Sequence to fold (207 residues):
Amino acid sequence: MEIAKLLESYGYDGLSVDTGTLDSYYWACPPSYIERGYMVELAQAIHEAGVRIPVICGSRMNDVNIAERAIADGKIDAIALGRPSIADPDLPRKVVAGTPEAIRPCIGCNQACIHRYGQIGIVNCAVNPLMGRPESYAPQRALVPRKVVVVGGGVAGMEAARTAALRGHDVTLFEKSDVLGGNLRTAGVLIVRDRTPALQHSPGRRG
Ligand code: SF4
Fold:
């Protein structure tokens, strides 16, 4: 907070507030087990310290309701979208269009963006196959549109159907159960909300 006040006095136009260090990078790049919006109260503290320039808050802010509420309540002035923009570059457009349910959310896995960048210097995304390689994976219009049948509404089946439809094919997807999602539904059972550990209890060291 003292540094924020100094930066304002130096003429800075705004502050993008973040937390974490190299040894606690999970706070700066919070994984899925850290609650969305966990940074709001910390960013708000900058205003409460008397800083008047805009405060921007990132890190797990890809819940539209949390972001809107934090801004409406005057806690922060704007949000930063890093990984959510990698997962869905159209996120802001979908909010403006009133279709937030169409947003492809970042799941906080850190696998294909941060981990892969650290390994081979390339940013990809676990939920956005186009990220980092649009030339290879951008769906091309089919020269001859066909009727396509996809059997199975799991992740692979749904993505195959989606991609085929984007290419202009006439797609029918068959699923034996009455819900889509396949094994992802089972995996999702483990998602537990509100498990954010307190800041002083570090979830473990890097590596
Ligand atoms: S790989 Fe994609 S979904 Fe996973 S954390 Fe990175 S941006 Fe989010």
